[in-house]
Specification:
single chain, mainly alpha, 3 domains, 25 helices
C-alpha cells in the first residue's frame, strides 16, 4: 500500500466515530464474560447469537487483556488517519507525542510499585492495618475512609499519593473487617479525588483555571458550590452503606486472627509511621511526586532491614518482584503479596496503548470533529455546560489522560463561554467537575489504571461506589440547567464596579 502524499483532509463525523465505536466494541468484548452475566431479557438473545460465531464466541467466553483491544482500536485509528491523507511518519510521531505525555505517570507507577513492596516488607502496611483493625468499627469504616482520604489529599494535593499510601492500608483494613473491597476502593477514590480537585497544591486545580482564563482561588471558591453538596451526599451514602456491615457482618474472630497473625509475623512499632509521614511532609513542601515517592521507598527499604531484619538483597528483590507473604493465613497472604516494579508493567502497557490511540485521534482531527459536533448540539447555558461535561468525560475515554480531559475541552470551549457571556470560572469548574473527577472511573485511563494497580480493584467494580465521582458531574449539570451559581461576565463586572 502506497502512503499518501497529498495534504490531509478534515474527517467527517462518521469517519471520526469509526475508531471510537471500534474501541467500545473491542473493549466490551474484552470486559464482558458471558459466563458471569446474569440473564438480561433483551441483551441475552443477542449475546447468545454472537457467541455462536466462532471468533466472537471464544472472545465472549474468555478474559482478554485490555491492552489487546486498545492496540486493535489504535490500528483502526491509524488506518482512518491514512485514509484522511496523513503519512505514516506523522502518525508515528502522534503516537510518540501521546506516549510522551504519559511518561511521568509511568515512572511514578514504577516508583509506587517499589514503594508498595518495600513498605510491606518493612511492616508499614501491616502496622497500618493492625492499628486500623483495632481502632475502626465496620459500621463507620467507609465514612471514615472517605473523610481521611479527603483530608490527606487536600493537604497533599495528590490523589495518587493518597491512594498509594493510606489507600493501601484501608484496603487491608476493609478486607479484615469483612467489607467488600469494591466499596472500600470507591470510598478511597472519592476521598482522594476530592483533594485532587480542591487543593491549591494539586496540578489539575492549577491547570484548569490556566486553560480557561480564570484565577486559581476564584476557581477553588467557585468549585465549592458543586463539590460541597456532592461530598455531603457521598458521605451520607457511605454512612448508610456502612450500617449494613455492623457486628453481624464482620467476624470478630476473623479480625482478631488477622491482627494476631500480623503481630506475630512483623515487628509492629509506631516508628514505622516515619515512612508515611516523610512522604506527606515532602508533598506538603511542594516536592515533586517522583522524588517524594522514591524517598518513601528508600526509607521503607531501610526500615525493612533495621526493623524486620530483611537483607539488602531481599529488599532489592522485593523492590523489583514485589513482596510474597508466607504467613500461613490465606487471607493475609493474598492481601500482602503485592508490589514491585514488575507488578506495574501491565498497567504501563495499558497506558502506552491508550495514549497511542489518543495521540492519533487528536493529531488527525477526529477528536476535534467529535467535540465540535457536541458543541453544535448545545443550546443555552445548560446545553453548553452539559456539552463541556460530556466532552471531558469523552476525552477521558478516547484520549485517556486526565490532563488532556482538561486541556482539550478548555481550549475548545473558552471562546464559546466568552461569547455566551459566561465567566471563565464556570468553564474551569466544569473541567474539574468532569475531567478530573471521572478519570479514575475509566480502566484504560492513566488514573483508572493507576488505581487498579495500586488498590487491586478493577475500576468498573468500584465505579458504582465512587459516589463523589458520580454525583459531582450531575450536580454541575443541574446547576447549568437551573442557573444556580452560574456567574455571568456582566454580573462580575457589576460586582467589581460596586466594590
Amino acid at each position: 500500500m502506497s502512503l499518501p502524499t497529498a495534504a490531509p483532509r478534515p474527517p467527517t463525523l462518521a469517519e471520526a466515530l469509526v475508531p471510537v465505536i471500534c474501541l467500545f466494541v473491542f473493549l466490551a468484548g474484552a470486559v464482558i464474560d458471558l459466563n458471569s452475566l446474569p440473564p438480561i431479557p433483551l441483551l441475552t438473545p443477542f449475546l447468545q447469537a454472537l457467541a455462536a460465531v466462532p471468533y466472537f464466541g471464544s472472545v465472549l467466553h474468555a478474559s482478554i487483556p485490555t491492552q489487546i483491544p486498545l492496540i486493535g482500536a489504535t490500528a483502526v485509528a491509524a488506518l482512518m488517519a491514512v485514509r484522511l491523507g496523513w503519512d505514516w511518519r506523522t502518525i508515528e510521531v502522534s503516537c510518540l507525542d501521546g506516549i510522551r505525555l504519559s511518561l511521568v505517570a509511568c515512572l511514578i507507577l514504577l516508583l509506587v510499585g517499589i514503594l508498595i513492596g518495600t513498605w510491606i516488607a518493612a511492616g508499614i502496611v501491616p502496622m497500618l492495618i493492625v492499628y486500623g483493625l483495632e481502632l475502626m468499627s465496620p459500621q463507620y469504616f467507609l465514612l471514615a475512609a472517605c473523610l481521611i482520604c479527603c483530608v490527606v489529599s487536600l493537604a497533599t494535593g495528590s490523589s495518587w499519593t493518597t491512594a498509594g499510601t493510606i489507600g493501601i492500608a484501608f484496603i487491608g483494613i476493609g478486607s479484615g473487617l469483612g467489607i467488600p473491597l469494591p466499596m472500600v476502593a470507591g470510598a478511597i477514590v472519592s476521598g482522594a479525588y476530592f483533594g485532587d480537585k480542591m487543593s491549591p497544591l494539586s496540578d489539575t486545580t492549577n491547570l484548569a483555571p490556566a486553560v480557561s482564563g480564570s484565577e486559581l482561588f476564584e476557581h477553588v471558591r467557585h468549585m465549592a458550590f458543586t463539590t460541597a453538596p456532592s461530598l455531603l451526599v457521598a458521605l451520607v451514602l457511605y454512612w448508610l452503606l456502612g450500617l449494613r456491615y455492623g457486628d453481624h457482618h464482620a467476624s470478630l474472630a476473623a479480625v482478631e486472627a488477622i491482627s494476631t497473625t500480623l503481630r506475630e509475623k512483623y515487628v509492629i512499632t509506631p516508628w514505622l509511621l516515619a515512612g508515611p509521614i516523610l512522604v506527606i511532609v515532602m508533598v506538603l513542601l511542594r516536592t515533586p511526586a517522583m522524588p517524594a515517592i522514591f524517598a518513601g521507598a528508600v526509607l521503607g527499604g531501610a526500615l525493612a532491614g533495621v526493623v524486620q531484619d530483611v537483607s539488602f538483597a531481599g529488599v532489592l528483590a522485593v523492590a523489583y518482584d514485589g513482596y510474597k507473604a508466607t504467613t500461613g493465613v490465606a487471607a493475609v497472604d493474598e492481601l500482602l503479596s503485592r508490589g514491585g516494579m514488575s507488578s506495574m508493567y501491565g498497567t504501563i502497557g495499558i497506558i502506552l496503548c491508550a495514549m497511542c490511540f489518543g495521540g492519533i485521534m487528536e493529531k488527525s482531527g477526529m477528536l476535534g470533529v467529535i467535540a465540535s459536533a457536541i458543541l453544535r448540539l448545545a443550546k443555552g447555558t445548560g446545553g453548553l455546560i452539559s456539552a463541556t461535561l460530556a466532552t471531558c468525560l469523552g476525552v477521558n475515554i478516547i484520549a485517556p489522560d486526565q490532563y488532556l480531559s482538561i486541556v482539550v475541552p478548555g481550549r475548545m470551549y473558552r471562546d464559546a463561554y466568552r461569547h455566551a457571556g459566561l465567566h471563565p470560572k464556570n468553564l474551569s469548574r466544569c473541567l474539574e467537575d468532569a475531567g478530573t473527577i471521572t478519570s479514575p472511573l475509566v480502566p484504560w485511563n492513566s488514573c483508572g489504571a493507576y488505581m487498579f494497580a495500586t488498590l487491586g480493584v478493577f475500576p468498573f467494580a468500584y465505579l458504582p461506589y465512587a459516589f463523589f465521582n458520580l454525583i459531582n458531574p450531575l450536580v454541575s449539570a443541574l446547576y447549568g440547567w437551573t442557573g444556580w451559581t452560574i456567574t455571568r461576565l456582566r454580573d462580575e463586572r457589576k460586582a467589581e464596579a460596586e466594590s
